[in-house]
Design brief:
By secondary structure, the chain is of the alpha/beta class. Helices cover about 35% and strands about 20% of the residues.
Length: about 240
């Protein structure tokens, strides 16, 4: 299994100051949200300013849901993204859906690709279908982020950052995916170490769990989250 693209990601960063905070605390990835309607959405010009703050080695991840590939790539070029995270629905015809063919459409840019999936009542069955179709089309994601389930009718802005927790036990019972897994969904400084220990994931991702208000990162919580996650990863050897 290859190494994950990151260990600790602070997502939904909306200002250069919060980007600098995440990097200083020791996060090795920052998520910039370009999903309309999200309380953590950032415009590309502001995102470029945040990207410029990040030191070498900190991954700038653009989060998208249902945006055509050409538009994602235009944002990626303007901002200077290192990776694209597809966060839309896995299946369906709605505007917030990211079909497997999106992987192939994004391939020429050479960006790393992350796929957010949701742990549903049938586990990761939908995620497995999506990944298989993407691989059959010539390219799959380098990393999968497992988030909490949402209604299949949820709009793009309601797909992440809900604070709802993944069922860790259900995730452990799932057969492995063919790429590394990161855990999101309801992670906080208080529970991230337990989540890492319980699930064995190789990376973690948080947004609402380190905020004082939607889109506003709390310095103490960011530092506490990163410290707890790094200690948990180190303790596993």
């Amino acid at each position: 299994m290859p190494l994950p693209l990151f260990r600790i990601k602070i997502c939904g960063v909306t200002t250069p100051a919060d980007a600098a905070l995440a990097a200083a605390a020791g996060a090795d990835a920052v998520g910039l949200n370009f999903v309309p309607g999200s309380p953590r959405a950032i415009d590309p010009v502001r995102a470029r300013e945040a990207r410029a703050i990040l030191p070498p080695g900190v991954l700038a991840v653009g989060v998208f849901a249902g945006m055509p590939a050409r538009e994602m790539l235009a944002v990626a070029r303007l901002v200077g993204l290192d990776a694209i995270q597809l966060h839309g629905h896995l299946e369906g015809e709605g505007p917030a859906t990211d079909p497997p063919a999106r992987c192939h459409e994004l391939a020429p840019a050479g960006l790393k690709l992350i796929r957010a999936v949701r742990l549903e009542p049938d586990g990761l069955a939908g995620a497995r279908r999506w990944i298989a179709a993407a691989l059959a089309g010539g390219r799959g994601p380098e990393l999968v982020i497992v988030d909490a389930g949402v209604p299949r009718t949820a709009a793009g802005g309601a797909l992440g950052g809900t604070g709802h927790r993944v069922d860790w036990g259900a995730l452990v019972r799932e057969p492995p995916l063919p790429m590394p897994i990161a855990l999101a969904g309801g992670l906080t400084p208080e529970n991230v170490a337990a989540a890492i220990q319980a699930t064995g994931v190789v990376a973690v991702d948080t947004a609402s769990g380190v905020e004082s208000a939607p889109g506003r990162k709390d310095p103490d919580r960011v530092w506490a989250f990163v410290t707890a996650a790094r200690a948990a990863f180190a303790g596993r050897g």
